[in-house]
Structure formats: C-alpha cells, structure tokens
Amino acid sequence: MNETWEEIKSELKNQIPDHSFKMWIEPLVFETLENNAMVISAPNFFSRKRVLDYYGEIIERELINAGGKVSRLKIILSGKKEKPVKNGFEISQQLILPMMDFQPQNGRKLRQDFTFDNFVVGMNNDFAYSAALSLASRRESNQHSLYLLSDTGMGKSHLSQAIGHHILSHGKGERVYYITAEDFTNEMVRAFRQNCLDKFKQKYRDGCDVLLLEDIHFLTGKDRTQSELSLTLDYLLDARKRVIFSSCMRPNEIPKLSDQLRSRLSCGLISPIDPPDFRTRVRILTKKAREKGYELPMDVIEYLANELTDDIRQLESGLIGVVAKSSLLGVDVDIKLAESVVKTISQKQKKITVEAIKRLVCKEFNVTEKDIVSSSRKHSIVRPRQVAMYLSRRYTDSPLQVIGKSFNRYHATALHSIGAVEKEIKNNGAFQKQVEILGKKIELGNF
Questions:
Q1: What's the CA gap between 139 and 251, in Å, rounded?
Q2: Over the stretch 297-306, which tens digit does the pLDDT of each residue have?
Q3: What is the pLDDT of residues 111-142, one digit of tens each?
Q4: Is residue 213 part of a domain?
C-alpha cells in the first residue's frame, strides 16, 4: 500500500504548485490501513489541518482512482497522541496555553489573535503562509530570514506575529523580540544619549533568538540606525538565528537605504502578499463574524466582499459597521443596510493616486499640470514638482519608476526630488508646515 501512496503523491505533484507540494504533501508518510481508510501521518497539527482543508478531497479522489477498497483518508500526527476535539475541530497546543497574560521577553506584546490558526489562507497569500510556517517550525534548515511584503492591511503583521506565537508555544526557550523599525531607532537614540550603547548592542546581538522587525521602510535616510542594524543582522544570521522583516516596499525600492542593509534584507526569502480575491474575502468575513458571534445572511457577506476590496481592515470595518448600525437602529441586517454602510466607507476611502496628488499640489502652488510635468527648471515649478513626488511616494504604493514617469522624469530624478524635500523639511519650518498641511488634506480626502 505504500507503493500506492507514492503513486498518489506523484499524481498530486502534477496538480499542486511546487512550493505547496514540498511544504504540505512531501512530508506526509504512509502508516497503515484502518478499515476502509488509508492512514498517513503529518509532522504537526498545522500540517494536518492544512492538508485536510485544502487537499483532502483531491487525495481521496486519487485513492478512488487507484482502485481497491480503500477510499477514505485519515491523517494522524507522527509519533503523537491524538489531540482533544471541540466542536469538530482539534485544539492546538498553542490555543490551550495560558497566553492571556503572556508577555514576550522583549519588544511589543504579540496580539493573541494573530496566530496561524486564525489566518485565512487564499491564493493571494498561500506562499507567504507556507514560508512563514516553514520558518517558524524550522522545516527548511537553510532558511533563516523572511521578508513579508504587502500593502497596509493585507496580513503581514498577522503572519509575522504568528511566527512568534508558534515559536513561543513550542516551548524551546527561544527569546522572541517583536518590534517596529521606528521603535528600534528610538531605542538606539536613547541608548546613545544615555551612554549605554553597549547594552543596546548586547541586548539584540546576544539576548535575542528571533527578531520580528516591522515596517523596515521607516529606516529610509537614517544612516546611523541602518549601520547598527546591519551589524546586528550579521550577528544574528551568522548565529543561525531567525529574522522576519515586514514592509510595504521591496528592499530595492526603499529610498536612501545603505547598500549593506539592502543586501542583508535581500539575502533571505522575499514573499509578497497580494489583495485577497472574492472567495477569500468571503471566507475572511465569515470567519470574523463567527469569532465575534455575529449572525449575517450570506447574501450580505457576499455583498460586502464584492464591494469592499481594498484590504482586510476595510472588510472588518464593513462587518462591524453593519452589525453596529443594525443594533443601534433595531433593524435586521439586510442588503439595504449593508449598502448604506458601504456607501459611508467608500466616501471615507477616497482613492489616493499620483494624479490626484499632482492636482492638489498644482492648486496649492498655483501652477498648471502642464507646468509641473514640463522641462522647466524655474524654482516656482521645480519646488511643487518635488513636493508632488515626495507626497506621491509617501501616500501611494507606486514605485519610484512610476512616480518619475508621471512627471516625465527618470527614477534617479524622482529619488533626488524626494531627498531634497526631506532635507528642506528638516531645515525650513515654514516649508515643513506647508507639506504637513498638504499631507492632512490627502489623508482627509480633500483633493
């Protein structure tokens, strides 16, 4: 029967993406036959749950195609006792730990709900989820760093913290440090001012086994912090410790980043997370509604999933808005109510684009859009052009090449313009105030 299982695995390899096959199917091992079922073992609870949820039907179909009396699949944990079951679902070790008052040894506290169990996997994030779980469980011994890449609200913080929870819950005594790049910078500055930089260095280099570093793009232009972080990463990676980064920009897109740090950020696996598709959005809403005890008709869930497409936070806002409005008005949740909530959210979520910023800046500086994209080098034209590029970089996810092209400029010119504005903001209070006012208008949708 083991030969039959190997044949089934060969068939599955042709039907499943390579990274998914290596992550989930390859580690499965044939154990025995039990009544009318083939029993195979998975290395851990997460693997077992994933295979049953996503590949169980495919495997059972191949069992039937293989002939014989075996037509059912049973997956057990290798060398472990069966876990307790509640409401038809196995309870993982992580969920039964007393995590309510648990505080990681360093950095910010991990959110209790940001675990692998609570992460909804879809085609948009399948590879990122697999890579994160692989790193957390040390399945790939040569993988020591992971760079999670996505726009805001796509789940990179969830996956990053899920790695921390997984490592902590398996009780090997590893020290997990979860922190943002801004916190790292502020902590280093305080250490420098208080003349205790050696303690700061020792804390990260010797006192940390797993570093979860969020929003790495915050370090743009911070030369001293970049230099210290580069050295710290050398210590951690040379010691085969794990480092997880997250950002909304690829390492080669972060402006004013040192070559040393850019190289270290790029040496590991870079895993993008795309916006969820319709089916995944439906599953996210359904899961969150069930977790919070909300009861929503499926047509309302599907309507929200169809209309709210920006990110997961927007989906949560729609879900909470519908339930809250229903409760306050004392009316049933229906499509009409959902439409009124979506309309409000859409008005708040006015799309910020390079063209919209360009129009706002032209109005502020009293120049035309034709002027701002022209070859003119007049100060009265160059200044608003540079400001528009700076704001486009700050408030949109457009890469530098796209921003430069929008103003008929090369990538290097766009980068220089952003740097020039950043420098003048530090030295010119009136100019800084003007840029801040424009930023507020963009944030409020007044453009």
A1: 25
A2: 999 999 898 8
A3: 888 999 889 998 889 999 999 998 988 766 67
A4: yes
Buried b (16+ CB within 10 A) or exposed e, 409-440: beeebbbbbbbbbbebbeeeeeeeebbeebee
Are 285 and 151 within one domain?
no
Give the Å distances, CA to CA, from 257 to 94, 221, 226, 431: 38, 6, 8, 24
Question: Domain range holding 153?
Answer: 106-272
Confidence of residue 109 (pLDDT cuts 50, 70, 90): confident
| CA gap 354, 402 in Å, rounded | 9
Residue 101 counted as domain residue: no
Statement to judge: residues 377 and 340 lie in one domain? no
Same domain, yes or no: 320 and 396 = no
How far is residue 187's CA from residue 179's CA, in Å, rounded to a whole number? 10
Is the whole-model pTM more than 0.70?
A: no
Q: Which of 34-43, 237-246, 287-296, 377-386 has the lowest mean pLDDT?
A: 34-43
CATH number at residue 386: 1.10.1750.10
Q: Is the domain of 237 the same as that of 375? A: no
Give DSSP secondary structure letters for 288-336: HHHHHT----HHHHHHHHHH--S-HHHHHHHHHHHHHHHHHHT----HH
Interatomic CA distance for residues 155 and 166, integer angstroms: 16
